[in-house]
Every structure is written in C-alpha cells, then in structure tokens.
Amino acid sequence: MDVLKIATAGSVDDGKSTLIGRLLFETNSITTDKLQAIEASSKKKGLDYIDLSLLTDGLIAEREQGITIDVAHIYFSTPTRKFIIADTPGHFEYTRNMVTGASNANVSMILVDARNGVVEQTFRHFYISCLLRIPNVVVCINKMDLVGYSQTAFEEIQTKFMAFAEKVKFEGQQISFIPVSSLYGENLTASSVSMPWYTGAPLLSLLEEVTIDEQLPDEESRFPVQYVVRPKSEEFHDYRAYAGKVASGLLRKGERVVVLPSGQETTIAKIEKFGREIEAAQAKESVSILLEDDVDISRGDMIVPFAQLPKQGRQLDATICWMDKKPLRVGGTYLVQHGVNISKAKISALTNLIDVVTLEANDTISALQLNEIADVQLKTAKEIFYDSFADNKANGSFIVIDEQTNATVGVGLIK
Amino acid sequence: MTIHAGIFPRELEDEAIYIFREVAAQFEKPVLLFSGGKDSITLVRLAQKAFYPAKIPFPLLHVDTGHNFEETIKFRDELVAELGLELIVRYVQDSIDQQKVTEETGKYASRNVLQTVTLLDAIEEFGFDACIGGARRDEEKARAKERIFSVRNDFGQWDSKKQRPELFDMLNGRINLGENVRVFPISNWIELDVWNYIKEEKLAIPSIYYAHERETFERDGQLLPFSSFINITEDETITTRTVRFRTVGDMTCTAAVESEAVEIDHIIEEILSATVSERGARIDDKRSEAAMEKRKQTGYF
C-alpha cells in the first residue's frame, strides 16, 4: 500500500475545509463522536450549519480567529492508497508554514473560488509548489454552483492561471484543473451531473491514480550515514554497521562505493534490515550497511556508488525562504543542517529577492525578512557533498539554524 | 464506501526507524515513555529494529498512576524481561505523598492530569533531554498540529505558536539547557496502521485488548470498568459484560466497548466498522473542547 502526500493551502472563504471535510466524510473517515463534537462547537458559535473547518483547525487560537495558522495533518484511506493531507494556511504571514507543509508533498492542491478567480494567494501557493518542485498540481475551481456551473467561468480561470504558471512551472510538472462544488460534493468522489462538459476524473479518482514518482529517473544514489551500530556484545563482537535511510537511488550488495569525505573506496558487503539480509535498498528505506573494509566513518559522512559522485565544496548557492522574525543578514553566521550533516556557515551574498506575485526581483538587499524568498550564497566550515535540488531533492536541500536560539530559521534549496 | 483493512504501508516503518536513529544520535539522554498500550509496544519494536543487533540505547519510563489494569503491568514486566530492557517506574502516588499534587475528588476523580507532574519530576531527576512517545496525529485535533520533534520549555510546556518548522525529513533537535524535546515517531500512523503492524509483526499485546468478561457500569453513555479506584454513585449498577479496550489508559478514564473480538483480525474488522473514534473512549479528552491542548501547555505529552 502506498502513501500519497497532499499539500493544500487556502483562506477561510474558499471552501478548503469543506472540501477536506467532504473527502473525509465520503471516505468514511469521520467518526460520529468527532462529528458530534464539531456540531456542538458550531452551535456554540451560533452557526446554523456544521462548520467542518473545526475538524482541522485544532488550536484554540485558530478556532478563535477562524483561520488556519499552523499545519494540520489529516489522514484518510481508500482501498488503494493511504492519503496524508498537510493542511496549511494561505495568508502571507504564514508562508513559512505553507513551505513546511508542502516540503514533503507529492501533490499540491490549490483551491480557487470560482466567483473570485485567481487571487494573490493562488499565485503564492503555485510559486511555492514550483520552488519545492512538487510534480503534480491540482487546481480545484470550487463553488461552481455559485457561478451556474458555467464552463466559460471555469475556462477563464484556467487561462489566467496558466498565463502565470507558464512563467514559473518546471519541465515535467503536471497541472490539472477540476471544477468542483464542495458544498454539494460535485466532482469530488463522483462525477457531477451538473457539469457534463467536464469529462475528466473526479478529484478522488485523480488522487488515487496520480503516480507517486518521487524518484527522478536519472537520480544518483546517496546514503547519508545516520548512526553507527556497534553492539559490542559477545555474539556480535566485531559487528559494525552504518545505519541510515537511503536518500535517493538504489544501493546493491557487492557494489563498489566511495565514502565521503575520506574518499576511501570499498565494497558493500551486506545490506541488512533487522538482521535480515537484503540484496538492494531503495530510496526511503531505513537499512544498515556493512562494508568489506575497515573504513573510518562517522555520522554525517556519505556513502555513494563509485561512479556517482556528488558535487562537493564549501560554497553553496541556494534559494532560501526565511522563517524567523529576526532577519537574515549578509555576514551573519548560522548552522546549516544538510541532511544529517551539520556545519557552521556564513552568509556571503544575498540577491534576487522575489515578489512571488509580480515575479519582480530586487537585487539591492542586505537582509531577508520573515516569509521572504531570495537567492543566497554561503560559505560552510565543513565540506558539503550535495546535488542541486532540481536533480536530487533529498541531497539538495538544507535547513538553517540560529545558533543562539537553536530554532530552525530558514530552508535552502541548492541551485 | 467502506474502508478496507489493506496492508501496512512499510514507508511508515522506515520513517519511524529514521526518527529513532536521529534521537539516539542527537540527544544525550533519551527515554521512551512506555504505558503498556499498543502504541508504546509498537515503539519498542521499532526501537529494536532501529538499533539491531545492538540493544536499545535508552531506558523505558513508565509513569505509574497506581490506577492500572493489572494485565498491563504484568505484560510490561514480561516484555522488559524478555528483551532485556531497562525500565524506570515513577509513581503518581509519590507525588501525592510529597504533596506536589492533590488527588481529585468526586465522581470523575482521575489521576490522568496529575501524572504530568510526576513525568516532569522524572525528566528533571534523570536529566532526560528527549522523551519518545507514541502519540499520533490522527488521535486528536491538537495532536494533529504536533511536530515530530516537539520542543518543550524548561517547565515542560508546549507553545503551539512557537513550533519549529520541520522541512523535508530534517529534524532539528538542538535545545537550550533545561529544555527537552518530545519525539513522536509514529506521528503519521493511524489507529488501523498500528493494528496492521501489530498483526504483521506478530507482536504480543496485553489481554485487555481482546474480549473478556469484566465488571462494568454505565456512565454518560459509556461503559466503564469497575475497580476500587473509581467512585460510583448509588444509581450506577455493576454488571458483568463481555468487553474489550481500544485504548489503554488509567482505569478511571478508559471506557470499554462491548465486543466478541478474540483475535487480531476481529479487532481490525471492528475498527473498520466503528463509528466512534479511539479517543472517544477517553473520558480525559472530554473535559473540554481544548482539553488536550491545555494539558499539553502544562507539560502533558
């Protein structure tokens, strides 16, 4: 059974919560007690309908203000797939939460109110979906019932969206449009009778059929060493394995590999999972690797196939999204966590501050404020073994940590 | 449309093992919070897998309210002995005796809230910097907002507005002195995933998860187990029924369901057709709409 991760974003009024509520309801994923609880809360708020957003807006502050502030994770399944929705806020002030929720997504679901058409938030959400290279984007044009199920209205929005999308989308990214009415459940789990002109699949079928193709076809293999397993027991006296999660590609028993940074060459003797030997390990699998030779390896080192060396160096060029109230400044020092490897780093240049709606760039900046996106150049203390984010997501991203507060203050996508 | 039992998505196990290894690598003194319930039993198996053939490199901590199901305690001790684990037990009764907390009174008296103090004291006593727990995001709406590494201040409090962004799979466990991190490796599992995993891994679980005869009484539309820990009123009558538990907490706040399920497949079928959620059987969550978030703010896990 596979898992599809979906990121959604939107504002209070675009019907996102109703849409998610509907999906849960029609896949039998809401239980009576949860439904009764939100029914009671809706009444308390003086509403004459069940406010399904109360299902996902779990924090006191969110219910008070009627908005989504932080990412909520919502789960449902159909016979073929498990779905995880990261429901994120759409306001500019919460861009960082949107980036957080979308970072692991296979599908980005963008909601557009058919009456209002594309708005600033639509552009922002799509821009972030492209920045994070989410391969599938589904644009749900909602509240079709309020525009008389008009095909023209649908097509106008589609045209306007594509005019923007053409400027930012990446090669191979799939964009689909679905006219829906969450309130009446049209084109969600079943095709709508009110919109015979729409011949595509309803939303749920589309989500069930999307290929989860996180692995790019020519992605090289990367194994960051997470933990060294040394039992030191009598039975396993000389046992030494390198535990980790395969970041990308495939590693095989008997394969010739290089250990970075030492550059020593050796061969994979065994790949194990809880004591069971396997022939090969693929991306996302947590395994233990045993090597033929005694090599000096510690956490943060990387094992890669002999002929698939990553880029290496102490200077990184990246797009960065800033996530802290205290701005990022040129000359500032931070910690950079690239996978499980941590190094000190200094910001040497900041350029190309992007307005994600107008796509205008500003080159004369010395600081990056909360929620802003720009290009950064930084120097690391340690050598980093990386790929560009476009080639390899897992080995092409890093987080920035403030050394004083220990908070995660930014995310970088390597060029 | 009905949900099918499906099979366990192995990706969730890989993710949880990755999280366990990050804990062992990033923290000095982690501990696994163990209640004897199905979620913490699942955690123990995942920890075993993460470090095999080495032993689990941290102890288990059980915060004992004294209001336990005896089957759970028996199970706990057998598991610890079988796997050669280190178990630390701290008692809510001690916190009461030291007058750090006051026992609740009345019909709804429970030690569920009191255990937070005992937990925070244990964290301080041993200097734990990471507490691994079996909470899942699908259980409850405040838990749906939790990070995998959830930082708590030096009073053990959760601040929902100050959560660290978690991007891709990179986990930042750096903390200031006195702070600690609550770690939730099975955040992305739902109840059914846990049961499918227990089935596929053939894990033993306490007998109270299966149908058995028990003295129970009705309160507020739920079936509560009768015990010497609970205060019952005159109009409540005790009847022996065939029941099982879906979740294991304190005897005073865990409701039973009538059930004939004696095998794990029966349990899975029951969950698939259930119209009430797992936490619907937890009286502690029903105290108010924001009961869980409020408890988290004071250091509950």
Automatic annotation (TrEMBL), chain A:
Q: Does the keyword Transferase apply?
A: yes
Q: Name one Pfam family in it.
A: GTP-eEF1A_C
Enumerate the InterPro entries for this protein. Answer: CysN_GTP-bd, CysN_II, CysN_NoDQ_III, G_TR_CS, GTP-eEF1A_C, P-loop_NTPase, SO4_adenylTrfase_lsu, T_Tr_GTP-bd_dom
Keywords on this record? ATP-binding, GTP-binding, Nucleotide-binding, Nucleotidyltransferase, Transferase
The record's GO molecular-function terms, alphabetically, read: nucleotidyltransferase activity
The enzyme's main class, written as a single word, is transferase
| SUPFAM superfamilies per record | EF-Tu/eEF-1alpha/eIF2-gamma C-terminal domain, P-loop containing nucleoside triphosphate hydrolases, Translation proteins
Annotated EC: 2.7.7.4
Which Gene3D superfamilies does the UniProt record give?
P-loop containing nucleotide triphosphate hydrolases, Translation factors
Q: Which residues form the Tr-type G domain?
A: 1-216
What is the protein named?
sulfate adenylyltransferase
Q: Which organism is it from?
A: Pontibacter populi
TrEMBL record, chain B:
Matching SUPFAM superfamilies, A to Z? Adenine nucleotide alpha hydrolases-like (SSF52402)
> What is the top-level taxon of the source organism?
Bacteria
Query: What InterPro entries does the entry give?
Result: PAPS_reduct_dom (IPR002500), Rossmann-like_a/b/a_fold (IPR014729), SO4_adenylTrfase_ssu (IPR011784), Sulfate_adenylyltrnsfr_sub2 (IPR050128)
Domain called Phosphoadenosine phosphosulphate reductase: residue spans = 30-255
Keyword list (alphabetical) reads: ATP-binding, Nucleotide-binding, Nucleotidyltransferase, Transferase
Q: What is its EC number?
A: 2.7.7.4
Q: Which Pfam families match?
A: PAPS_reduct (PF01507)
Gene Ontology molecular function: any one: sulfate adenylyltransferase (ATP) activity
**Homology family:** Belongs to the PAPS reductase family. CysD subfamily.
Annotated protein name in UniProt: Sulfate adenylyltransferase subunit 2
What is the organism of origin for this protein?
Pontibacter populi
